Amino acid sequence: GRVLLARRPAPFSVTPRGLGTSARSTYVGPCVTRPSRPVANSLRFASAAAGMQQARRLTEPSKFLAGVDVFIFDCDGVIWRGDSVISGIPSVLSGLRAAGTRLFFVTNNSTKSRAGYKSKFTSLGLDVQPEEIFSSSFAAAAYLEQTKFKETGKRVYVIGEKGIGEELDLIGVDWFGAEADKDAEAPLQPGGKVDHDKNVGAVVVGFDRHINYYKLQYAQLCLNKNEGCQFIATNLDRVTHLTDAQEWAGNATMVGAIRGCTGLEPRVVGKPAPLMIDYIAEKFGIADRSRICMVGDRLDTDIAFGRNNGLKTCLTLSGVTSEPELLGQAPRKAGTEGIQPDFYVDTINDFFETRPMMAEANEIHE
Predict the structure, then answer these.
(1) Is residue 69 annotated as part of the catalytic site, yes or no?
(2) N or C of the chain: less Cβ packing under 10 Å?
(3) Active site residue: 69, 174, 197, 278, which one?
(4) Helix, strand, coil percent content, the chain, rounded in steps of 5
């Protein structure tokens, strides 16, 4: 699809097509009598649940699979958690391939490039080809390539890890920052200041385990001082799976900090933005999107990505979304209101009524 440049794009919305404004929170005016906070939350929760289309647990997997030619899988919380593959996944992927189904893997995690993710798949015993892998670090580079950023002669400042830089290198865009600035300290003594490069034309913000005040200051100077400098976010994931023991603060943390000190809304290139599905559909000649199924664990990125782009959707409960939250039995996280998948499963092992035959020795658990 055609991508337009914008200095101050409209705030990013994840409201799926067809849901209208009801999926967004709406201010309805002041009340004379205001209920207590727990009561008010219960009333809003009950109202939202009553108007929400109920998600359906997948009960006829063979019928479901017959309607799908292409699966697009999220990775964190679907294929693995941290550095541990979810039990049974190698067998499921092999079974889908044996049935002639095409597979792609689309992750919002920008810490690795496509080559880096290929290495991770291999280390987990998963036979995945490089052309089947798409990351938000790739999406950032693809966006800059589509908009002919290199021809401007500008540079990119990166908050993030090596995945973004590796993808920018592949398209010949000059960049700096990222891990090179992990130990940089802001000069907070009297008269101290950070000098920034006035030739920076874009700041790309991805997940960064080494985020620091110097990086935040450098990014805000570029965006606030350099005319036309673009604010690009790889994703807005609130939490991520750095380990299999718990959830960790995600890239929304870094993006939120830059949004807060600039007043700018980012151009989001990862899910649920359409860039990666448009690229896949065009590159591989996939015309009928209704026979593509997006499988993920996040309502506001994975399921919204599918809904917004005409795909079937399946939520797996092996990641960040719980069944009570999905079914309206617990409050939804902000930004997920009204977003429902076509089906949901505990894990993608539920795609088969009986587990596909595969030697257990081929499954590697780290």
Answers:
(1) yes
(2) C
(3) 69
(4) 35, 15, 50
